[in-house]
Design brief:
The protein folds into two domains: 51 residues; 117 residues, Mannose-Binding Protein A, Chain A, CATH 3.10.100.10. Helix content is 35%, strand content 17%. By secondary structure, the chain is an alpha+beta fold. Keywords: Lectin.
Length: 190
């Protein structure tokens, strides 16, 4: 054990003790470095575990035959809800229904998805509107409508300056802008 001894000149530790102290200091620094490295390892490990869990959830979802909530349909790995036949809502109210279930109104980005959605109802609300800025059509996730090939001929026409929400119909298989307060069936996507 290192005892602090004083030589005749008071205040001078003996050199054996100094060596011991510097050795302990080095040990302490090494432990600090090690602890820091362990912390980094632990952070990385946590991140890796999070990624692994997410992937595992995705694998489970894909392996199951019923990957979506009860009553929802699967299409290309996404889940869709189609409102009960005969029940209709305004665009905003339809959207609220979807959001309360962790989803949003359907965003149609491919011809396949369009065909999948239009077969459900005569007229279905979709998550597309120009409510914020006239003729600037945006999906409910904030993305712009890039492919404008899905409008019916002559649409969107903003009839009577009061058409700011979009629907698709089974007959037209194309988008049309209509007043948002109208009541239609709706489709959610998650
Ligand atoms: Ca979609
Ligand atoms: Ca409009
Ligand atoms: Ca229209």
């Amino acid at each position: 054990m290192c005892m602090v001894k004083y030589s005749k000149a008071i205040g001078h530790q003996d050199s054996k003790c100094e060596n011991r102290i510097s050795s302990l200091t080095a040990d302490r620094d090494a432990l600090r470095d090690e602890r820091y490295q362990l912390k980094l390892d632990s952070i990385n490990l946590t991140k890796e575990m999070e990624v692994r869990d997410t992937l595992q959830e995705e694998v489970n979802r894909l392996n199951l035959n019923e990957p979506c909530q009860e009553g929802w349909k699967t299409f290309n790995g996404k889940c869709y809800y189609f409102s009960t036949s005969g029940v209709t809502r305004s665009w905003e109210s339809s959207r609220k229904y979807c959001k309360e279930r962790g989803a949003d109104l359907v965003i149609i980005t491919t011809k396949e998805e369009l065909n999948f959605v239009v077969q459900s109802y005569r007229v279905t609300w979709i998550g597309l509107s120009d409510r914020e800025q006239e003729n600037s059509w945006k999906w409910v996730d904030g993305s712009d409508l890039i492919d404008d090939g899905f409008w019916q001929v002559g649409e969107p026409n903003n009839h009577q300056n009061d058409e700011h929400c979009a629907e698709v119909s089974r007959s037209a298989k194309r988008f049309n802008d209509v007043p948002c307060e109208r009541k239609f069936s709706w489709a959610c996507e998650n």
